[in-house]
Design brief:
single chain, about 60 residues, mainly alpha, about 65% helix
């Protein structure tokens, strides 16, 4: 993902996670767990910088 799509996806997941956490205070504890997981995934996507780095392929075979 590039910077724009990663930012949009991360922000959307963080907002959804916060909404679900807010709803969890009126419903059940299980909903709170889902909200926390969505929030963690959103923050991970938002702050993951290593995803855009392309690694060089190292060939293990010998050339003939």
């Amino acid at each position: 993902m590039n910077l724009v799509s990663r930012s949009i996806t991360g922000i959307v997941l963080v907002v959804i996670g916060l909404i679900v956490i807010g709803v969890a205070f009126f419903t059940s504890l299980v909903v709170l767990i889902y909200g926390i997981l969505i929030l963690i995934f959103g923050l991970f996507i938002l702050f993951n910088k290593k995803e855009d780095i392309i690694e060089e392929i190292k060939s293990g075979g010998k050339k003939k």
